[in-house]
From TrEMBL, chains A, B, C, D:
Keywords on record: Hydrolase
Entry-linked InterPro entries: Isochorismatase (IPR016291), Isochorismatase-like_dom (IPR000868), Isochorismatase-like_hydrls (IPR050272), Isochorismatase-like_sf (IPR036380)
Keyword Hydrolase tagged: yes
Protein name: Nicotinamidase-related amidase
Domain spans labelled Isochorismatase-like: 13-175
Source taxon at top rank: Bacteria
Alphabetical list of Pfam families matching this protein: Isochorismatase
GO molecular function: isochorismatase activity
Source organism (scientific name): Nitrosospira briensis
CDD domains xrefs: cysteine_hydrolases (cd00431)
């Protein structure tokens, strides 16, 4: 087995956080309203990222299912009559996407995400997904601690309520120097130009 | 999705390290000789562990395959004409086994193993697998740092050469207070009696 | 040297975050206004905590001073004409206080805080200090990931601006289930009654 | 306070592990015999390292003394009638040395060592100190997991017994590709030439 399988090195990486999600929980009904337009924006951003050679990583909760794997999770969340299915289908992972299952809110806590990002030579992270004020914020904080530059396109994440979404975006702009420009305004090619401070 | 899926709590856990392995590397030919009898001993120990209600965890290298999952890995290692296939088949994971993919030598490094063991309430770990002086030793060291009691049954792990196997077992006995009694002599029920020092 | 020096075990711990601080940075002038009343509330809470046998931990930035230690840091921050000196003096550490130097925003990132809290058997953390929307929030997030119950008395932390203070408190109430009751209303003895979920 | 104090960047770092040690424990009497000549070799190597601009880091156990600091530890270990005093005096830290207190065997476990080494831009580590088959081995393993190149000069570390010392050196040569050449044969300037694989 090739221990050194070639990874697609790139200074930028796109992280899709908890988008594979059945949304079958309290307040999931409110969340899905905001999550549907979000999913379309992420899908568009992901297509452009792929064209630019930016690797896409699904950083997804394992939902306490320690005995199943990501494919099973995708299938289960995309099933009939599952609330989160339209989002899971819109954002179905492709063969060349990466994935990291996380057991808690932060994508970095007890996962190999940091090592994978190091191997990919990523310095700047575009964070998308659910929810702005929980797993996106936790992951953004931990990315900032590790020296990554952070983008959180405002239209590519969502929360249960507008004020929680906006509050968390403001928090990330102020404390993490995050760029929250909407996805349509991001020029991906420009992100390649200078590297972030992660080293 | 149930975030609180019930885990099988038990003060003892059985860890199978890198047993799903194609062994297609330098010195793999030498290793397979020692690994075949090892696999039979682990299989027997695993059957008894299951009878006693001890959870079994596959702690396995991802072999740099960041885009595939454990099922795919098992299938690929159990394939025809793969050197490690007899071992992967003998020790094929069952539905109620847990698994943790590790990106480096230690099962604890950038993985959720510590959290899973906490959730299982494990205090004593029985470490098995490949190789005694590499991934088993790395994982044993990290388990010891975290306060687990350690058993490494001498007949349930293997290395490329006998002296490396014995050297690492001695190292673990001396530095980690590891119990290296052969599997046939371990009385699993007795391990339940008093808890280890993990706190 | 006694490797097993007896720690003061207690289910509750009081954390003083970045209170030893020269405040000689941009916006430090605004921060000190909010930090002075905060320091008096923390000092009072700390006196009561000590009476109840609750261990007090200084979790303080090392401010990039990798070659000096905490005593030096305290002396330097309490010096004449240092902006943060009144706070550093009000909250001067005592002999039986613990301290953990952190290199980044979260008290848990690359520090022994988690191990110290485990050794102290702490399950509930009272977080105080500077600033509400930065190091206090980062530390609270990481505490929550690890299963601690969290209290952040609103009058015992401060930020550069009122709205940032209140925004972060709301964030912690919603996402971390943090209790932000003001310090005068906290009945410390009651915190001993039932343990949190950290185990 | 300057959050960006300039660190001395260098691709090589010298780590002195647990040399500040009272040796007042079981088997300390045996250890001190091997540790005295070791200390002289380390002192010589440290002098040459300083001349070459290589930063020196004391990576030392806190011995469970959570309420004291490194200076106190040095003073206490160098005191009269302390078994480890001759070593602590021979290797007394200087003002421009760095130090990291570790709570357990590995210098990387719950400490800021990894971040400090990243800030120093270190890629190759020269590990020295006590004991070869415990804290030196634990730290070497964790350094290897993180991609550092490792040197463990055979005459600059020591264990309770010769066979344990030699066994651990062999283990590190085989598993970690460690260079165990004696200190007199190391040409420090050559280590600057090509960088290690840490990234």
């Amino acid at each position: 087995m090739n221990d050194n399988c070639v990874l697609h090195e790139c200074p930028v990486a796109l992280l899709l956080i908890d988008v594979i999600n059945d949304l079958e929980f309290h307040e999931g009904e409110k969340l899905v309203e905001h999550a549907m337009p979000m999913a379309r924006h992420i899908a568009q951003l992901k297509r452009e990222a792929k064209k630019s050679g930016i690797p896409c990583l699904y950083v997804n909760d394992n939902f306490g299912q320690w005995q199943s794997d990501f494919k099973h999770l995708v299938a289960s969340c995309a099933g009939d009559e599952v609330r989160g299915a339209p989002i899971a289908r819109e954002l179905a992972p492709q063969q060349d996407d990466y994935f990291v299952l996380k057991p808690r809110h932060s994508g970095f806590f007890q996962t190999p995400l940091d090592l994978l990002l190091q191997n990919l030579r990523a310095k700047k992270l575009i964070l998308c997904g659910l929810t702005t004020d929980s797993c996106v914020l936790f992951t953004a904080n931990d990315a900032y601690l590790r020296g990554f530059e952070i983008l959180v396109p405002a239209d590519c994440c969502a929360a249960v309520a507008k004020h929680r979404h906006l509050g968390a975006l403001g928090q990330m702009r102020r404390t993490l120097k995050a760029d929250t420009t909407a996805s349509a305004q991001i020029e991906l090619e420009q992100l390649f130009e200078k590297n972030g401070s992660h080293d």
